[in-house]
Amino acid sequence: MSSADKVVISCALTGAVTTKKHCPAIPYTPVEIAEEAKRAYDAGATIVHIHARTDEGAPTWSKETFARIQEETRARSPVLINWSTGGAGPMTDRVSHLALRPQVAALNMGSMNYAKWSESKKEFAFKFIFANAFEDIIAFARAMKEHGAKPEMECFDTGHLESHTVLASLGLLEKPYHFSFIMGVLGGIKASARHLAFQAENVPAGSRWKVIGISREQWQLAMAALCLGGDVRVGLEDNFYLPEGEMARSNGELVDAAVKMTKLSGRSVATLEETKQLLWPNGGMNP
Questions:
Q1: Can you tell me the distance from the alpha carbon of 218 to that of 239, in angstroms, rounded to the nearest whole number?
Q2: 62-84 burial string, b = 16+ CB within 10 Å, else e?
Q3: Which of 97, 122, 166, 176 has the maximum number of C-beta atoms within 10 A of its C-beta?
């Protein structure tokens, strides 16, 4: 198997902000999230990124809710689970669910201004400081190591990539490193193929990386990542729309589009077993 040929497709199922008013397919309950995880897996995704919601759709860090999501998801498919640890709230709340031992956990790698600008209203739809101090990043990484979760290092801007050197020097990372480049958030790196190429050039040799394109730029960035040798994440957390412009009716439809794009690029979609080998070549993955 050529690791450069294989593409790991991830799917972010629900996020923490968008609601069914934005897109009716957004899942809230553990059962809804698990059903979407199965649709994503059946379409070709091998990793699902999960935020927990209350049954009414509000974000929650309840460990019990994460446990129900995990139970329902594993009852339906063998897809690998990636817990979110990002967003607001006390750090202790944002890591307690790692004790459930997911295979992967998202690790935000730096602070930034995070905002959405409304051009029509000439005002911010929302804005806040996305604070991730080095002390917190290290603490999150320690918790991930303790519970056997592989850090997915989320980089919203160019400097965030270099932050991994601190974690590596402390022995908190195991190769191959796993990076995600989030592009298109106002305050972070611009969503363009040129900017993605810059990020890809600076990835340590042997690492896996993928692009997370926000909104409709997702598909252009996905094709750029495929051409540059990277992996791809799609999902209703990041984008509601299929390449043709139609709103997706499920996460599975978005994954299906990513699979077709992967094949058009001349590369092939990694199976579940191939994904395990690519991310854990020496074993040690949480069961």
A1: 7
A2: ebebbebbbebbeebbebbbbbb
A3: 97
Written as one letter, the residue type at 67 is: A
DSSP-derived 3-state class of residue 118: strand
- Distance between CA atoms of 219 and 213, rounded to whole angstroms? 7
Compute the half-sphere exposure of residue 190: CA atoms within 13 Å on the CB side of its CA: 6
Tokens for 188, please give them: 């972070």
The amino acid that residue 150 corresponds to is K
Degrees, nearest 5: CA angle 19-22-25 = 70
Q: Which of 281, 274, 282, 286 is nearest to 7 (CA)?
A: 274
Residue identified by tokens 């051009």 is 119
Does residue 174 contact residue 121 with C-beta atoms inside 8 Å?
no
- Are 148 and 102 within 8 A, CB to CB? no
- Rounded distance between C-alpha atoms, residue 45 and residue 269, angstroms: 9
Confidence of residue 1 (pLDDT cuts 50, 70, 90): very low
Contact 8, 258 (CB under 8 A): no
Residue % of the chain over a pLDDT of 90: 88
Pairing of strands 6-7, 231-234: unpaired
pLDDT at 46 over 50: yes
Q: Which residues, at least 6 apart from 275, have a Cβ–Cβ distance to it below 8 Å?
A: 8, 46, 47, 80
Q: Which residue, chain included where needed, has tokens 């999902």?
A: 235
The CATH topology of domain 6-279 is TIM Barrel (3.20.20)
Q: Other CB atoms closer than 10 Å to residue 192's CB: what's the count?
A: 15
